[in-house]
TrEMBL record:
Family: Belongs to the short-chain dehydrogenases/reductases (SDR) family.
Keywords: Oxidoreductase
Keyword Oxidoreductase: yes
Naturally occurring in which organism (per UniProt): Streptomyces humidus
Name assigned to this protein: Short-chain type dehydrogenase/reductase
Keyword Transmembrane helix: no
Length: 287
């Protein structure tokens, strides 16, 4: 096979925004797409089948193949339902795009445990549950592609988004280990931080900036990571408005103390410890 032709790809939260663009492009490229969406509001309240159904209709009207699923990714049972739809309808699952998401913004001093938990449940737990349900199938067939939707709010921080930022960077941590564990089974895992005008971002960035960030610009990057030809794993991309970049962690040359340093030793060498001029791409020092 080549590209995403005939591959069965699950896109969560594909009833609108970025997920819809991913689903439309994947279907145009010949993939069979599970369009999952709970159909709720931006804060995750409510539900309905109309959003996912509309995208499935759009794909079918254009001659593509798609099926709707309305389960919540936030629970193990919901995720089993999402992957179960792929297996029941198409007999396989080859890729998952963990895109479903909600917002419950509040400054940290005002953030409630409920706001914290609701966001972890959809983004971080959702990414886990859906990928976990697909993983044995990926291993068995020696092929799997995982894309996590991360965010610059996690990579860099953003006011009012402690819950969201933590969940989104948690998904990068998950990708890092999935890349290690998946490699020998030809399972690749990567993350994309999109920048796009959607209902989620409409009041998070200035309107003039959002104008230049149509959601469709991000879709080819996500689709590339799902192709048979893609060999990258464990990478993080930022994509928006036609610009696509890789983001990575760099580690400073640092200082190797011969013995236990004193507090004063650390303070004295602080400029060398934190100097990023001779930094290199970071790898796990424990092997
Ligand atoms: P959106 O609100 O249009 O899309 C999210 C979709 O997920 C909605 O259709 C919603 O119904 C669905 N959803 C929510 N909870 C769900 C659940 N429990 N189960 C199944 N579906 C559920 O927003 P957008 O912007 O398209 O976001 C897509 C992803 O991209 C999200 O993960 C978001 O965090 C991420 N992202 C978006 C950015 C942007 O600039 N728009 C920036 C950084 C990340």
């Amino acid at each position: 096979m080549s590209g995403v032709q005939d591959r069965v790809v699950v896109v969560t939260g594909a009833g609108g925004g970025l997920g819809r663009e991913y689903a439309l492009l994947l279907a145009r490229q010949g993939a069979r797409v599970v369009v999952n969406d709970l159909g709720g509001a931006r804060d995750g309240t409510g539900s309905g089948s109309a959003m996912a159904d509309a995208v499935v209709e759009e794909i079918r009207a254009a001659g593509g193949q798609a099926v709707a699923n309305y389960d919540s990714v936030a629970s193990e049972e919901g995720a089993a339902g999402v992957i179960g739809t792929a297996l029941k309808e198409y007999g396989a699952v080859h890729g998952v795009v963990n895109n479903a998401g909600i917002l419950r913004d509040a400054s940290f001093v005002k953030m409630t445990a409920e706001q914290w938990e609701a966001v972890q449940r959809v983004h971080l737990f959702g990414g886990f549950h859906v990928t976990r349900a697909a993983w044995p199938h990926f291993r068995e067939q020696g092929h799997g592609r995982v894309v996590m939707a991360t965010s610059t709010s996690g990579l860099y921080g953003n006011f009012g988004q402690a819950n969201y930022g933590a969940a989104k960077l948690g998904l990068v941590g998950l990708v890092n280990t999935l890349a290690v564990e998946g490699r020998k089974y030809n399972i690749l895992a990567n993350a994309v931080a999109p920048l796009a005008r959607t209902r989620m971002s409409e009041d998070v960035a200035p309107a003039e900036l959002l104008e230049r960030l149509p959601a469709e610009f991000v879709a080819p990057v996500v689709a590339h990571l799902l192709t048979d030809e893609c060999t990258d794993t464990g990478t993080v991309l930022v994509a928006g408005g036609g610009r696509v970049q890789r983001v990575a962690q760099f580690v400073s040359k640092g200082v190797a103390f011969a013995g236990t340093p004193t507090l004063q030793d650390v303070a004295d060498r602080w400029p060398d410890i934190t100097d990023m001029n001779a930094s290199e791409l970071g790898t796990n020092p424990l092997g």
